[in-house]
From TrEMBL, chain A:
Region described as Disordered: spans on this chain: 182-210
Broad class of where this protein is predominantly found: membrane
Organism: Trichoplax adhaerens (Trichoplax reptans)
InterPro entries (alphabetical): P-loop_NTPase, Rab_GTPases_membrane_traffic, Small_GTP-bd, Small_GTPase
PROSITE patterns per the UniProt record, alphabetical: RAB, RAS, RHO
Name the record gives this protein: Ras-related protein Rab-2A
Entries under Gene3D superfamilies matching the protein: P-loop containing nucleotide triphosphate hydrolases
From TrEMBL, chain B:
Pfam families attached to this UniProt entry: CLEC16A_C, FPL
UniProt feature, compositional bias: Low complexity: 388-404, 422-434
Source taxonomy: Eukaryota, Metazoa, Placozoa, Uniplacotomia, Trichoplacea
Protein name: FPL domain-containing protein
GO biological process: autophagy; endosomal transport; regulation of autophagosome maturation; vacuolar transport
Keyword Ribonucleoprotein: no
Species of provenance: Trichoplax adhaerens
FPL domain ranges (all copies): 62-132
UniProt xrefs under PANTHER family: PROTEIN CLEC16A
InterPro entries in the record: CLEC16A/TT9, CLEC16A/TT9_C, CLEC16A/TT9_N
Length: 210, 1036
């Protein structure tokens, strides 16, 4: 299926905040209450429409990257958007946001759109972090904020789509270098605006590594 | 409920029908193709149903019994054989969900019985031989993607491999080491090399347009190195040694080190023609090598690399072909020669692995028990080549252990391995490595010398590697011969040892080092010099390189040239660059200069012994450089505000900013691009050349300051001849001050947001706004602090009671480059015109005094010759005089700020040259011996915009002089009744003068007493006016 742009997202946050569930809810529209720890990578993709354009969202949910510097570096560097997730029923996941954000800012390209997500909003009775706190944190660090529930699907769509809108806006503003795939944005195969200026003669990828 | 039953039934029927009608799968696909959708849907619904009723086991049981009755699971599994990917995925998912959600024991038994699930597992992973479990699909499948074009996939592979390595399971590690390590790591090396080649290509045709691509490639290289370092950090000895071996022999030596040579080594045959390009631009090679030093922390690799750079010789690059062709000089046996020829081109050539990684890995599927034994034996052999070869040359223990390996049977080796594994989950290799580590410390010089010599001269260890590598590549074929090969090789090896040891003493060869020095000398391009400096810094700063290895580069004390030739030559070269940098035509960028100074700093003081390492010549060079840099800066010296501001900014940023982060620098791909003088590009100033006079001045300042810092460090003294620049005001915001000794002027401060009442005061070099403390009489809280020298005052045209005051922030270089940041911009409304003038005068003079004193001190330090008569009046003396003056003044005006009091008492001297060039200073100083600074200040202030308001000034001044001012209503101290009462007692006249007594004897002086000095001060402005003349006479 053709698309105008492909955006790569990453999902970050403490263990157990529901990263994989958010991904599953968004890409598959279902919720899986019992879920093993993510080993390695989970991956999902979905097509959305913004401004009449087909946009493919590719979401990478990599676990266990925290302990290795090399991973953090390349993981963040290749993404155009990041969902920074905490669990509203566990304060410590909120407290760790600063560390996550520092890491993200340090390694990502400066244009990466970060959305703060307070997940598990369905568990109102066990709420440990006020919505206002999340809002304040987001304001302070210039993030978009939303509370979601991967279980009821509340705001899940919006979270992913709003992030995409922001990225799309940045592309329109010329902030992203769309010819550089390393930024986590790819032009679609049939994109008419695919400029020929994208690096004129790229050496053959002998190792396929670039 | 009913619905789902029907779905299940439907599903079951559909399946039954599908499978019973015709067992041919192809046929099935055709027949049921249009029913796939239905199938998928039904299976989805049925599993959702199961899930939904998961809690209520009764329902579940009903459904499950139906499920079982129809033998659905086997049907489902049969459908796995379908060609359609969609169906397969959905079925696997369904089964997975069933498994995950079933709580009922019976149901689980049902699901797990009959080998159904086993079939699924077998199907998915395609275990052809699950008896021996000699495969680890998760890992082997994953590493096939290590080079995938999608960066996220590559990241995922790295994550997975690292997490797998981290699981300290000896059998698994053995599998990884024996089966996958060499193919994987050699492919990794090849892949990194390709990134490098691309960097090289991009650099040649670099322009701004592909700058981002170049940066990506550099980032990719850095990522790879971080990944390698992460593997090293897991401390798995056997993997580390193989990794080191592969990196050195397949990447670092053949590609990076090889590229350091200006002339390519002649190679004799077409062997190289077929292999990939093996040279990159030397500057890039140096740059990438320094990345290794800064990122990888694995000592054996780093030490070896350091050894090669410092003491390496040509032979290290040689291919086996060379070795064998001039074998006459070599004592190797005939057998060795024969082998060498047969291995032509395998050794130290940057080239692709003989077989693709996936082919190599898929070769594992065909295997026998013998293969296992042999490959594990191969793995064991890897413990010794290359990385542990240095051990062989020095310790007889390990030598014998090596021959043990060679002669022992494969079973023995396996046993030994197992023992070691069980002992401490590390194995032979890691213990060997730790031995090396120890030896590095104890006897590191000879050990490390041997590393390169050995690998370079004999070449046999790597030969074993490649031999074995190819064995592994072709998996099994050769297995019967391996033992013999290894045996013979080890015998040769021991034969060779004597030769190797004989060559150990020959350390004169420093081929690569000489090349580096040659670059420094010949390169008119700053980039190459910068990279070399970074590399040298890398060597000097990397922890874990033993000091004795560095002895020639970093001697323990001042040593004669002959004993530390590296040090002497390098320092010599560095000083010549430093000298050249001190000219305006120089091509040395600031970033290079900074790294240069840092390198010199390392080289002039030994960090361990703290000894000064520079010889007499070099110490002289050091001072000459300081002189040259001062000379360069003198050219730019002016009394303009902008000069001082800039200097101050540079001074502060050098003092406060962290030293340049070289580890960040090496990741900056833009360094590889050609730099220019243009400021249009986004390249920051330090990484390009200055493009206008301001930038040239800034460059001169920075060079001077950095050189000065180096000299100070070398001298080890805190001789601060720019002490005035270090003064930091002692007062901070929120401090509580006793107001009795502070001269205050009441005012309203109006910013765009609000209006507040404050008292303005000047303390030393600071501009302060104070609010009264409502809890403590006579005390005030500091609300704002700014530097007096940054205060800019301008009068309001239509309002003679207010001033526009702004304070710029000059503390950081970024503030300057972004345009000055304003700390405060506000309109100050005073009680009356007198106070307004007083405030303006104080601020202007305060600012000028601070500035003049600093400029004078700087001028002196730079050797700008003020006349001899004034030498006494250097800044310190001036300060003393000011102090004396102010004390003598004290009875008269107890609360006036020190500097201020002096000015006020000085009779102003009209003087119209604003420029503080030598003649001006000379004149003024000869006229009025110690206080010329102030005199100049006076003049300057009277010449500036104060004249604008002169007319209004006059009238007000006369009024104030006869004290006819009406009582001022502006004072309203809000802190309490007592105060206002007190205030009222004091009478209006007093208030109009701006003096109020608060409480007991604590008097808050809101203005200096007008009697003497305010009138006098005003006189300064209007000295042409008769009234004022009179006033001045009076006061004098």
């Amino acid at each position: 299926m053709s698309y105008a742009y492909l955006f790569k997202y990453i999902i970050i946050g403490d263990t157990g905040v529901g990263k994989s569930c958010l991904l599953l809810q968004f890409t598959d529209k279902r919720f899986q209450p019992v879920h093993d720890l993510t080993i390695g990578v989970e991956f999902g993709a979905r097509m959305i429409t913004i401004d009449g354009k087909q946009i493919k969202l590719q979401i990478w949910d990599t676990a266990g990257q925290e302990s290795f510097r090399s991973i953090t570096r390349s993981y963040y560097r290749g993404a155009a958007g990041a969902l920074l997730v905490y669990d509203i029923t566990r304060r410590e996941t909120f407290n760790h946001l600063t560390t996550w954000l520092e890491d993200a800012r340090q390694h990502s390209n400066s244009n990466m759109v970060i959305m703060l997500i307070g997940n598990k909003s369905d568990l109102e009775s066990r709420r440990d972090v006020k919505k206002e706190e999340g809002e304040a944190f987001a304001r302070e660090h210039g993030l978009i904020f939303m509370e979601t529930s991967a279980k009821t699907a509340a705001n899940v769509e919006e979270a992913f789509i709003n992030t995409a809108k922001e990225i799309y806006q940045k592309i329109q503003d010329g902030a992203f270098d769309i010819n550089n795939e390393a930024n986590g944005i790819k032009l679609g195969p049939q994109n008419p605006s695919n400029p020929s200026t994208s690096v004129p003669d790229r050496p053959p990828q002998s190792g396929g590594c670039c | 409920m009913q619905e789902s039953f029907s779905y299940i039934l439907c599903l079951g029927e559909g399946m039954e029908a599908g499978s019973s009608k015709d067992f041919s799968i192809e046929c099935n696909v055709l027949l049921w193709h249009d029913k796939y959708d239905m199938l998928i849907f039904s299976s989805r619904v049925s599993c959702n149903t199961l899930h939904k009723f998961g809690v209520a086991d009764i329902f579940q049981n009903i459904i499950l019994s139906l499920f079982a009755e129809k033998n659905m699971l086997s049907l489902l599994i049969r459908f796995l054989e379908q060609k359609s990917q969609i169906v397969r995925v959905q079925l696997l998912q369904t089964i997975n969900i069933l498994l995950e959600n079933l709580r009922n024991r019976n149901s689980l038994y049902y699901l797990l019985s009959n080998n159904h699930i086993n079939n699924v597992i077998v199907y998915k992973y395609d275990f052809s031989d699950d008896e021996h479990q000699q495969n680890f699909p998760l890992y082997t499948e994953a590493i096939k993607f290590f080079d995938h074009s999608e960066s996220m996939v590559r990241t995922a592979v790295r994550t997975l491999t690292l997490n797998v390595f981290r699981v300290a399971d000896p059998p698994m590690l053995r599998f990884i080491r024996n089966r996958t390590a060499i193919p994987y790591f050699s492919s990794l090396a090849w892949s990194i090399g390709n990134v490098t080649l691309q960097i090289d290509t991009y650099r040649i045709k670099s322009s701004l347009s592909n700058c981002s691509r170049l940066k990506d490639l550099v980032a990719e290289h850095v990522d790879h190195l971080h990944y390698i370092n992460d593997i090293y950090c897991l401390n798995i000895g056997c993997l580390n040694s193989i990794l080191t071996d592969q990196l050195l022999n397949r990447l670092i030596i053949p590609l990076y080190v090889n590229s350091l040579l200006t002339q390519e080594m002649p190679r004799d045959d077409g062997d190289n023609g077929q292999s990939a390009k093996t040279r990159i631009h030397p500057a890039i090679a140096i740059y990438l090598l320094s990345q290794i030093f800064y990122i990888i922390s694995y000592r054996p690799l780093i030490s070896c690399l350091c050894d090669i750079v410092l003491y390496g010789e040509e032979s290290i690059l040689m291919t086996k072909a060379h070795k064998s062709s001039d074998a006459s000089s070599n004592t190797s046996s005939g057998l060795m020669k024969k082998r060498s020829v047969s291995l032509l081109g395998c050794y130290r050539v940057f080239g692709p692995p003989q077989q693709g990684l996936s082919q190599t890995l898929s070769a594992f599927k065909v295997k026998t028990t013998t293969a296992t034994v042999n490959t594990s034996f191969d793995g064991d052999q890897f413990l010794f080549p290359e990385s542990s070869s240095d051990e062989l040359s020095v310790s007889s223990d390990s030598e014998s252990s090596f021959s043990d390996v060679g002669t022992s049977t494969t079973t023995e080796i396996e046993q030994r391995q197992d023992e070691e594994n069980s002992n401490n989950q590390s194995d032979a290799s890691s213990s060997a490595m730790s031995k090396i580590d120890n030896q590095l410390d104890e006897n590191s010089l000879s050990t490390l010398k041997s590393t390169s010599t050995l690998t370079a001269d004999s070449g046999w260890p790597s030969e074993i590697n490649t031999e074995n590598g190819s064995l592994i590549d072709s998996a099994v074929e050769k297995n019967s011969n391996i033992c013999d090969d290894a045996n013979s090789e080890s015998t040769e090896a021991t034969d060779n040892l004597s030769t190797v040891e004989g060559q150990l003493n020959n350390r004169s060869s420093t081929l690569f080092w000489k090349e580096l020095l040659k670059y420094i000398e010949s390169s008119d391009e700053d980039t190459a010099i910068l990279f070399i400096l970074i590399l040298v810094n890398g060597i000097l700063e990397t922890k874990g390189i033993s000091p004795s290895l560095l002895k020639n580069l970093l001697p323990l004390g001042e040593t004669p040239k002959a004993e530390a030739p590296h040090h002497y030559e390098l320092v010599e070269k560095l000083f010549s660059i430093t000298e050249m940098s001190c000219s305006q035509e120089s091509h040395t960028r600031l970033v290079t200069f900074e790294v240069l100074i840092r390198t010199l700093e390392h080289l002039s003081i030994n960090p361990h012994s703290n000894a000064r390492l520079l010889c007499e010549n070099h110490v002289q060079s050091l001072y000459r450089v300081l002189e040259l840099s001062a000379e360069q800066l003198r050219v730019f010296y002016t009394v303009e505000d902008v000069f001082l501001d800039m200097f101050e900014d540079e001074y502060r940023s050098l003092k406060n900013n962290k030293p340049i982060g070289i580890s960040k620098l090496i990741m900056d791909g833009s360094l590889l691009l050609p730099y220019s003088r243009s400021s249009i590009t986004t390249i920051e100033f330090s990484k390009r050349l200055p493009c206008n006079s301001i930038e040239r001045a800034r460059r001169a300042m920075r060079i001077y300051l950095m050189t000065r810092k180096l000299v100070n460090k070398f001298e080890g003294t805190r001789n601060n001849n720019l002490s005035l620049f270090d003064i930091i005001g002692s007062i901070n915001v929120k401090d509580v001050l006793e107001l009795s000794n502070i001269d205050l002027i009441a005012c309203h401060v109006i910013t765009s947001e609000k209006m507040v009442r404050r008292f303005l005061a000047i303390r030393e070099t600071q501009f302060i706004l104070v609010d009264t403390d409502s809890t403590k009489y006579g005390w005030g809280i500091v609300r704002f602090v700014g530097n007096l020298q940054d205060v800019e005052v301008s009068s309001e045209r239509d309002d003679n009671k207010s001033l526009q005051i702004s304070i710029r922030q000059t503390s950081t270089a970024t503030a300057i480059s972004r345009g000055t940041l304003s700390m405060l911009t506000a309109k100050f409304v005073f009680t009356d015109h007198i106070n307004c003038i007083v405030a303006r005068q104080r601020l202007k003079r305060g600012r000028l005094i601070v500035r003049q004193k600093k400029l004078y001190q700087l001028g002196q330090v730079l050797g700008i010759s003020f006349s001899a008569a004034n030498q006494a009046a250097n800044a310190d003396d001036a300060a003393n005089i000011i102090k004396n003056d102010s004390t003598s003044d004290l009875q008269m005006k107890p609360a006036v700020t020190e500097e201020f009091s002096t000015i006020i008492n000085e009779a102003p001297k009209p003087q119209h040259e604003l420029k503080l060039d030598e003649s001006t200073i000379d004149n003024s100083r000869s006229n009025n011996d110690s206080v010329t600074d102030e005199a100049t200040v006076q003049t300057q202030s009277s010449n500036s915009d104060t004249f604008v308001n002169k007319a209004t000034d006059k009238s007000e001044i006369s009024a104030s002089n006869v004290q006819l001012l009406p009582p001022s209503p502006v004072f309203e101290i809000t802190s309490g009744n007592e105060i206002s009462e007190d205030m009222s007692l004091k009478g209006s006249l007093n208030r109009s003068l701006g003096t109020a007594n608060l409480g007991n004897n604590d008097s808050v002086r809101l203005l200096p007493p007008l009697k003497g000095n305010s009138a006098q001060k005003n006189a300064v402005d209007g000295d042409s006016d008769n009234n004022i003349e009179e006033l001045r006479n009076d006061t004098n």
